[in-house]
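Predicting holo structure, zinc ion bound.
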Amino acid sequence: MKLFIGGVRGGRPVIDAEFARYGGDTTSYLIEGQAGERLIIDAGSGLMPIYERLCASSPSTRHVCLLFSHYHHDHMMGLPSFLPLYSEEWTIELAARIFDELTVEDVAHSYINPPFWPVSLEDMGAALRFRIFDDESMERASAYGGLEIRWCPLRHRGGSTAFRIDEPATGASIVIATDVEWSESDQEEREWLRKLATEPSPVDWLLFDGQLDDAEYEHYRGWGHSTWQQGVQLAAEWGVEHAIITHHAADLNDQRADEREQAIRGQSAKARLAKQGELIELIRSS
Ligand SMILES: [Zn+2]
Ligand SMILES: [Zn+2]
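Done. Tokens:
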């Protein structure tokens, strides 16, 4: 199982040479299973680099599943221009929890529709499937090809979702937890995420919202995000070998990101900041 990082930013994309190395696109990740499964988590502007990766890595694949952690604009803005939606050759599955009594089908239809977009979702061409993660599904894994998907709710403004992806054939496993405010999470929410990361066995990789630094957190309390220090510490507590810190603020330029990454590695040699365009083999630790 591999992780391709399409976009790393929170809030909005940034385009300038000073952001070139860590990347300027907003949140979107691609999980590639060894049997050809293609699972996308979130559809920020980083969905475009993911589309390019889909074309390059598996040109004959015409099926993809998109999971949404939540519907904030930085996690959705790439969806209307996702080219496979315009092709009858593609089957696209959209999957998410219900937020504000709206299913993923409701949200997708209102997001891709006039006056916000010139074409309506149902007129685009691709065959669409919708999957709802209802509350009962939190207790069990659901299958996507040879991959297993588990989830739990996260504390965030309006709510968000963490996903755990396992590939039983190889033992590879990752939890993707963006956007989350750990400091404001209650005991139950903390326990849900701990269980997701450690049961049935600890994952080897944790991708975590570390938009903030401990020193600046108080100023942003209640904004819905965590600190990179919390991400590194939780990975250590839960026995997760590799922490990847993501959802970088729009003002975190490459120079500041280098400094932050150095600080991160000072706390954990195997932790790092997410970099757009990176392809990571999610190897099992032991
Ligand atoms: Zn976000
Ligand atoms: Zn958000």
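The pocket of zinc ion (ligand 2) is lined by residues 70, 72, 156, 160, 179, 224 (CB under 6 Å).
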